[in-house]
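During the no-cost extension, the postdoctoral fellow (Dr. R.K.) reprocessed legacy sequence entries with the updated structure-token encoder. One reprocessed record is reproduced below for audit purposes.
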Amino acid sequence: MKFAAIGAGVLATAVAMGGFAGETQARGDHQGPQFNFSEIDANGDGQISLEEFEARGEARFAGMDTDGDGAVSLEELVAGFEQQQSERMQQRAQRMLERMDADEDGKLSPEELEARQGPAKMFDRIDANSDGVITEEEIADLRSKMGKRFGKGKGMGEGRGERHGKF
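Re-encoded structure tokens follow.
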């Protein structure tokens, strides 16, 4: 019984923190997940108490427990995480559209995409010495800079992406 209570608490915390990860602010510095402070601060006093924090986790847990049996199955976890990911993707796409839709028609044309992040612009960013070619050293420098920028021990392209030839 004690294990079940601890397990439920750990799961509720994981669900709550997973929810926080999806609540990002629209900013370009990629400093990691943020959460909606005012949403968790239920009484609006400018502070989050343990009770408010726990209530947030319990609410997210209850939202994932779609059959109402007091437990979250593998299927419910997957569905909940997929929903959170879908919401994050929708928000990211909306911000991208708002940022890049120069003619404000609600669509991105190839010209609008090219103007913001086309292959030539990306190439120029990587080609640090502007000699018209990209060297392995320039890729390594970029990886190092990206790792530092995002506060990670590994730079851009290290790990899974590098195995697939992506940078």
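The longest helix spans residues 74-100. The chain has eight helices and no strands. The remaining legacy entries will be reprocessed before the final report is submitted.
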